[in-house]
Amino acid sequence: MPELPEVEIVRRGIAPVIVGQTIDDVIVRERRLRLPVTPQLRQKTRGQQIREVRRRGKYLLIDLEGSVLIIHLGMSGTLYFSPKPPTRKHEHIGWKIGDVFLIYNDPRRFGCVVWSSSAPETHPLLCLLGPEPLSPTFDGIVLRQALKNKRTSIKTALLNGHIVVGVGNIYASESLHKASIHPQTPAHRIGNVRSSRLADSIKIILHQAIDAGGSTIRNFTNVEQASGYFQVQWQVYGRGGQPCTCGGTVRQFKQNGRSTYYCPRCQR
C-alpha cells in the first residue's frame, strides 16, 4: 500500500500541472471502489477551478471552489497523466484538465474518490487522524504523549493513524531500526529520550524515501509511471536473514498478521 512518501510524491507530481486549471470534464467508468465514487461526480466538479493539492496522511486533497476531492490510493491505486481519456482496464476515472487527462487507475479497487462540500478535516475519513510526522510540531514530546497509555507494541502503535499518520509497515520498521528500538517494546515504555529519537528517525526516513522517489514493491509508480527506488536503501524491511550494518542478522516475524523486520543486535 502506498504510504506517506509515495502519496507525497504523487502530490508533488500532479500539483504543478493542475493547480489553477479548470476541470473541463470527468469520465467515471467504475464507481465500485472501497467506497463508492460520489454520485454525480461529473456534475459536481466539472467547471471547477483547482485551487490547491494537499496531503493528509495517505489521503490526497484536491481543493476546488468551495469543495474538495478526497482520494486514497488503496493497495494498488495510481494517478498519472495521459493525452487520452480512460479506456484501458482498471482506468476507472479520468479528469480532463487542459490538454491532458488525470487518470485514476486501481486494479484492486481498494482506493476511494470522494467529493465533499464540507471542510475536509471534519470528514469521517480524516477527522480522527493523528499528527503529521513531517510537521514542525511533531516531535518527541508529542509522540511520547500519544504513546504513554498505549499497551500495544511500539510497531503496532506506529501503524495506528491516531498516533501518527502515514507511517505504514515499511517505514515503521525502518524508523524503529534507525532509532535502535525493538518493534515489540510496549509503547508506553518508550520514554522521553527514545520518543525524541524515534520522532527524529521517522522524519529522516520519510524524507529519505521522498527524495528517493518512494518504495516500489509491486504497484507504486509516480505520475510519470516511473518506479521509486528507496527499496534499495532499506536497512531491515524485506531483508530477513541478511546482515545488518551492525554485524547482526536481520530477523523477520509476524506481528498482527504483518511482517516485521528488525535486528536483535542493535534494536533493544
Strand and helix map with partners:
Blueprint: H1 4-18, E1 23-28, H2 41-45, E2 52-56, E3 59-63, E4 68-72, E5 78-82, E6 91-97, E7 100-105, E8 112-116, H3 140-147, H4 154-158, H5 169-178, H6 192-211, E9 251-255, E10 258-262
Antiparallel strand pairs: 1-6, 2-3, 3-4, 4-8, 5-7, 6-7, 9-10
Give the helix proportion (percent range). Answer: 10-25%
Rg computed from alpha carbons, rounded to a whole number of angstroms: 19 Å
Count of individual helical segments: 6
Mean pLDDT: 91
Task: Give the H and E element order.
Answer: HEHEEEEEEEHHHHEE
- Backbone structural class: alpha+beta
CATH architecture of the largest domain: Orthogonal Bundle
Describe the global form: elongated
Number of strand elements? 10
- Uncertain regions: pLDDT < 50 for 5+ in a row? none
Distance between the termini: 28 Å
Q: For the largest sheet, list the strands in their spatial order.
A: 1-6-7-5
Largest sheet: 4 strands, antiparallel
**Tally of separate domains:** 2
User: What is the CATH top level name of the largest domain?
Assistant: Mainly Alpha
Q: Classify the fold: give the CATH topology of the largest domain.
A: Helicase, Ruva Protein, domain 3
What portion of residues belong to β-strands? 15-25%
Domain FPG-type: 235-268
Binding site for DNA: 90, 108, 150
Subunit structure: Monomer.
Domain Formamidopyrimidine-DNA glycosylase catalytic: 2-111
